[in-house]
Design a protein that fits this description.
two-stranded antiparallel ribbon, 2 strands, single chain, 172 residues, mainly alpha, 4 helices
């Protein structure tokens, strides 16, 4: 007997899920990478403010990156199809902005600085942790939001050997 695959949420539901999951994952990442920044030696209240401030900024970047990816990706049936292109654009925008922002805020403005524990990219000096954050977190968030790997298209019917649900009048 063939059963249809569970439906993937339509874009408003997928967008809300993506933002909620992004917030949680970025919050966890921001806390985890604190020792890689010099703020690690600051008072806890200052660290907490920085984590909240950065997580809210991450959420804005995540939302805007997805909206721009959806607008430029021209995939009207997302998330049911076209997820690979949207995911790739999402990573390009998120990671691209992160490299620029880290360079600007560390090297030009001096808004924050890395501890000696932070591995950095050669030449531009961008921290590896924030770059990885914008590759890993959006991938996990979009995967959880749409219910499948973002580089895989939605499959067709799922074959099952299980018996079909019984009809209410007792006939099968």
């Amino acid at each position: 007997m063939n059963y249809s695959a569970p439906s993937v949420p339509e874009w408003p539901i997928a967008l809300r899920r993506y933002l909620m999951i992004s917030f949680i994952l970025h919050l966890v990442w921001e806390v985890a990478q604190l020792p890689l920044y010099t703020i690690w030696s600051e008072p806890v209240a200052r660290q907490a403010f920085a984590v909240i401030h950065c997580t809210v900024g991450d959420l804005m970047i995540a939302g805007l990156s997805l909206l721009v990816a959806l607008a430029l990706g021209n995939e009207p049936s997302w998330p049911n199809s076209g997820s690979r292109a949207i995911w790739q654009l999402l990573l390009v925008f998120g990671a691209g902005y992160t490299v620029y922002s880290e360079w600007l805020n560390v090297n030009v403005r001096g808004s924050w600085s890395y501890s000696p524990l932070m591995p950095t990219l050669p030449v531009i000096g961008t921290g590896l942790s924030p770059l990885l954050q914008w590759l890993v977190v959006p991938t996990l968030a979009i995967m959880m939001a749409i219910g499948r790997l973002p580089w895989c298209q939605m499959g067709g019917a799922v074959t099952s050997n299980a018996a079909p649900p019984e009809n209410r009048n007792g006939s099968t």
